[in-house]
Amino acid sequence: MASVRVTGLSKRFGDRTVLNGLDLTIARGEFVALLGRSGSGKSTLLRVLAGLDRDVEGGVEVDGTVSVAFQQPRLLPWRRVWRNVVLGLHAPDADRARAVRALDEVRLAEHADDWPRTLSGGEAQRLSLARALVREPDLLLLDEPFGALDALTRLTMHRLVEDLWRRHSPSVLLVTHDVDEALLLADRVLVLDDGRIVAEHLLGHPRPRRLAEHFDIRARVLTDLGVSEDAFA
Ligand SMILES: Nc1ncnc2c1ncn2[C@@H]1O[C@H](COP(=O)(O)OP(=O)(O)OP(=O)(O)O)[C@@H](O)[C@H]1O
């Protein structure tokens, strides 16, 4: 069975239709990136898949457990780092070991007993990833998780996410504005517009691909997004 099967999904806010008969299937273990203009409904789709918004029309089937990591890590400042990781799991104190294992995966184990305010932006986002991973999700939803990071930290995060994906093989749906990031990480890139998936690019392996190929796909994705390359320069 697929990890995600969405058929004819529509979502309205008042008289505004954001998702309009959208179809989407994600295979188990597949890494999919979702691109689309600002306001095209990417976060709305993620919220629906996460079960945070059920006021929709159409079919939504998600197989297994789901975790979401948002762009802004939502951390409780009065809880130590490790407690933030297992937050909501109703975990007893014995689950500190579980939290530290997840922190170790994102190379934050030495910060387990720190307060969240002492973390850098990149560390806080890694904590957010650890919190998503500790649930051992079958489906990982990433909503611009690297958006607020500097270029160098982003690169580190890309490696980390790719590494985690290889080791745990969850299905991943990554929302991003960054075409290069999508091409770097995903097996398949989707473009959302007018409430539907209007284009899809199957990338396959091996990665990294040759530069000429990368730029060729990149140009096609930008065309799908309705942007000329100059606008991105
Ligand atoms: N709770 C809400 N009530 C009313 N309108 C909403 C609500 N949530 C989202 N919208 C509207 O739905 C549209 C899609 O929003 P969404 O956040 O899904 O877009 P997005 O593609 O993720 O945008 P961005 O790339 O800017 O984050 C927007 O026009 C937004 O104003």
Helix and strand layout, with pairings?
Layout: E1 4-13, E2 16-26, E3 31-36, H1 42-49, E4 57-62, E5 66-69, H2 81-85, H3 96-105, H4 121-133, E6 139-143, H5 151-168, E7 171-175, H6 179-185, E8 188-193, E9 196-202, H7 211-224, H8 229-232
Parallel strand pairs: 3-7, 3-8, 5-6, 6-7
Antiparallel strand pairs: 1-2, 1-4, 8-9
Helix pairs in contact: 3-4
Adenosine-5'-triphosphate (ATP) binds next to helix 1.
Give me some keywords for this one.
binds adenosine-5'-triphosphate; membrane; transport; nucleotide-binding; 8 helices; Rossmann fold; 9 strands; 233 residues; globular; alpha/beta; 6-stranded mixed sheet; single chain; 3-stranded antiparallel sheet
Please provide a written account of the structure.
- The chain has 233 residues and is of the alpha/beta class.
- It folds into two domains: 1-38 and 177-226, P-loop containing nucleotide triphosphate hydrolases (Rossmann fold, 3-Layer(aba) Sandwich), CATH 3.40.50; 65-171, P-loop containing nucleotide triphosphate hydrolases (Rossmann fold), CATH 3.40.50.300.
- It is built from eight helices and nine strands.
- The protein has helices at 42-49, 81-85, 96-105, 121-133, 151-168, 179-185, 211-224, 229-232; strands at residues 4-13, 16-26, 31-36, 57-62, 66-69, 139-143, 171-175, 188-193, 196-202.
- The strands form two sheets. A six-stranded mixed β-sheet has the order 5-6-7-3-8-9, sandwiched between helices. The chain has a three-stranded antiparallel β-sheet with strand order 2-1-4, covered by helices on one side.
- The mean pLDDT is 89.
- It binds adenosine-5'-triphosphate.
- Residues 13, 18, 36, 38-44 line the site of adenosine-5'-triphosphate.
- Residues 13, 18, 36, 38-44 line the site of adenosine-5'-triphosphate (ATP).
